[in-house]
Structures are given as structure tokens and as C-alpha cells.
Amino acid sequence: MVLRYARIAVYTVLAAVSSYVATRVYLSREPPTVVTPPANAGTWFARARPHCNPVEVETFVRQDPPALATIDGISYAAACYALAGKVEAARELILRLSSDDRYRAAGVVFDVGHPVADAGDDVSAAPIMELVVDFWPNHYMALYHAGASAYQLGHYARATQHLEAFLAVYTANDGWTGAANGMLTHMREHPRAQPRRVEDPHG
User: What is the pLDDT of residue 123?
Assistant: First the structure.
């Protein structure tokens, strides 16, 4: 009987030791790698937007790089550079895309830059709108704003080119066409005169 209890005690101790060792081995393992999905490009741009200026953009992009393996990632990165006035950097990014996808990136750049132009600051928006037109030649609102920018800067030949192209694709009889026709008329009748104030097409 004593021998039987001794065996039971030994088995109990061995089981406890085995359980302890197994637990320690399990806990000592490296934790499983958590794969974080790539950040949504729009989410990245929301973080980037306050830094899309000439002073901060390069540093921010190095520290928090966009997903340049995707069309959206390239598009929003190009938009950030364009807002910062680094249009050639934006152009280089868009040129990474296939010719069939470049207009999509230009559309994102337009959406980001459009509020600047719509607020009446066509001059500041000029490089952005020119970039959009380069990749999306019949984007009528980019044509209008590029034309209005060139007009206000006194670049009448380029303004005429953009505004005539705008009127060729935009047929509504509204404030936009009225403003475009007004600028064209003024340039034809006073080719050496200073630009006049452009009325807000929104009315």
C-alpha cells in the first residue's frame, strides 16, 4: 500500500513538472507577427494634408511614406506635392502609372486643388490646374481654372487656348461660360491691356 501511494505521489509530481515546463516553453515563444494592412490612401492624405507645404512635405513623406504601390497612393502623394507647389515631383509620380491610369491621378489632384481655385485664388491654383490639363486634356473645370489663371497672370495666348478648349467641351449657358467669354472678349479687344477682375462664376 505504501509503495502504491509513493507511485501516485511520483506521478503527480512528474505531471506537475511537465505541465510547468510546457507552460514556460509556450510563454517563451515569440508572439505571432501581427500583419497591419496598408493604410487607406485617403486616410494617409488626411494625415498628410497639414504638411503639404514647401517646408514640411519632404520630411513628412520620408517619415510617413504613402503606399506608392497603388494607384490611390500615388495619386494622393502627387496631390500633396502639388499643393506644396512641387509640381514636377507630382508629375514624376503620375508618370509612374500606366497611360490609362494617369488621368485618374490627375482627377485626385484636381479634387484636392479645386477648393483653392473655387475660393477665387486661381493664380495660386495655376500650376495644379496646368498639371491636371496635361494628363486630362478635356477636364473642363481644370481648363477653365487654368485659363482664368493664365489670364490673370497676363499670359493671354495660353489663357485663350485653355478657355476656348473649355467652351468646346462645356456647353451650359451659365456663369462659367459667361466668365470665359468675358475674358476672351477682353483679350481680343485689348490684347495689351491689363487683365480685368474675373467675376465669381458662382454668382
Answer: 83
pLDDT tens digits along 17-76: 444 433 343 333 333 333 333 458 889 999 999 999 999 999 999 999 999 999 999 999
- Is residue 82, in this structure, part of any structural domain at all? yes
Q: List the domain range (segments joined by +) for residue 50.
A: 39-136
CA distances from 8 to 3, 14, 16, 22 (A): 9, 10, 12, 21
Q: How many structural domains are present in the chain?
A: 1
Instruction: Assess if residue 168 is contained within a domain.
Output: no
- Output the CA–CA distances (angstroms, integers) from residue 91 to 67, 109, 116, 134, in the order listed: 17, 10, 19, 9
- Is 43 a domain residue? yes
Are 87 and 121 in contact, with CB atoms under 8 Å apart? no
Distances (CA, A) of 169 to 67, 133, 177, 179: 34, 13, 11, 15
Q: Is the pTM of this model over 0.85?
A: no
| Angle subtended at Cα 148 by Cα 144 and Cα 150, rounded to the nearest 5 degrees | 115
